[in-house]
Design a protein that fits this description.
This protein is an alpha/beta fold and 353 residues long. It is 41% helix and 17% strand. The strands form four sheets. Strands 1, 4, 5, 6, 7 and 11 form a six-stranded parallel beta sheet that branches. Strands 12-15-14-13 form a four-stranded antiparallel beta sheet. A three-stranded parallel beta sheet has the order 8-9-10, with helices on one face.
Length: 353
């Protein structure tokens, strides 16, 4: 390991050791923040994201079964656990809960998760299970595992069907575990549509939610968000590591990565003042304005403010970047798609009206 890598590892170890001190010393502030935000219907919602939960934990994206069970026990005692649909409802109306609100999700679809999923089902806790459909269909190990020398088995179609029959929400994690922002518009549409249809045919239920593979800011571009809308998804999940705030994003759900550290879970779910500040500072008011630097061809001519412009059915709306940022709001009238140019101030005013 390089010196820089060793230094980074050392600093992370120091921060983890100091985390309990920070958490305990800020409990009064956390309680005050939650009470004030809840009174205004603006208490944040935390969404957790796990990948592989198993007894062995060789990779960074794995959580040990023992640690996960500690997480579940803490959530039962201290939080109100919501489904993604309830999270979305809370973000629309600012619904108040007496305890911190949280949701649980899984990405990829590992067969080793079945023990952990059984614990959640027994506890009656809702969760969403996002799967990469090509791996589920073929049984092939995930590419990111193979790159690290692992061959963890994915779930089978029968296991996914059984989970859906047990009341688990099944979501799409793409047809393959591709970086969506690198795909052509046509290939992106196929990834989103094929995975959704294949899962719906498998489980006999609608698939409403999409988890973007990798899920960082460079992967969740405006084009990806809008393509997901066009493909029929009601929710898109990322891995930004931030809170979800009522009356802000309601289509795009931000998640925290789960790991083995219970102190980190406590710190995040009880409203960390630093994380809340970062969320407020970084949060953009529109689902379409996630990454204003990402512009994907084909690009329509930029209309003047307030001018409506039609484009052929089947093409996707995107951001328009002029001297002043404009967001093209997409809608349909009499079967024909159209866009209306809006500025961020328009979006903010609309969200507060």
């Amino acid at each position: 390991m390089s010196r820089a890598g060793e230094a980074g590892q050392f600093m992370r170890a120091i921060k983890q050791r100091l985390l309990p001190v920070y958490y305990l010393s800020t409990i009064p502030l956390r309680k005050w923040l939650r009470r004030r935000l809840a009174e205004r219907g603006r208490a944040p919602v935390s969404v957790l994201m796990y990948h592989r939960v198993a007894r062995d934990c060789p990779a960074s994206w794995c959580t040990s079964l023992a640690a996960f069970r500690r997480h579940v026990a803490w959530l039962q005692r201290h939080c109100t656990v919501l489904s993604l649909a309830q999270v979305q409802e809370s973000l629309f109306c600012g619904r108040w809960t007496s305890r911190p609100a949280a949701a649980i999700t899984f990405d990829d679809g590992y067969a080793d998760n079945l023990r952990a999923l059984a614990d959640l089902l027994e506890a009656g806790m809702p969760f969403t299970y996002f799967v990469t459909t090509e791996n589920i269909r073929t049984g092939a190990p995930f590419e990111h595992d193979l790159a690290q020398g692992y061959r963890f088995r994915p779930n089978t179609p029968a296991e996914i069907r059984a989970l859906a029959d047990a009341g688990v929400e099944i979501g799409s994690h793409g047809w393959t575990h591709a970086e969506f922002h690198r795909l052509s518009p046509g290939e992106l549409a196929r990834q989103l549509e094929f995975s959704k249809k294949w899962l719906e045919d498998l489980i006999g239920q609608p698939v409403r939610a999409l988890s973007v593979p990798f899920g960082h800011r460079e992967h969740v571009t405006p084009w990806v968000i809008l393509a997901a809308r066009r493909a029929g998804y009601d929710i898109v999940c990322s891995a930004y590591g931030r809170y979800n705030l009522p009356f802000r994003h309601r289509f795009h759900i931000l998640r925290f990565a789960g790991d083995n550290c219970l102190w980190r879970l406590r710190n995040r779910l009880t409203i960390d003042p630093r994380l809340l500040h970062r969320t407020l500072r970084e949060y953009l008011p529109s689902d379409a304005a996630l990454d204003v630097d990402a512009v994907v061809e084909p690009r329509p001519r930029e209309p003047a403010r307030g001018v409506t412009e039609s484009f052929p059915s089947g093409s996707l709306p995107i951001l328009s970047l002029g001297e002043d940022l404009q967001i093209l709001s997409w809608h349909e009238t009499n079967g024909e798609s159209a866009t209306t140019a809006l500025t961020p101030l328009d979006i903010i005013a609309d969200s507060q009206s």
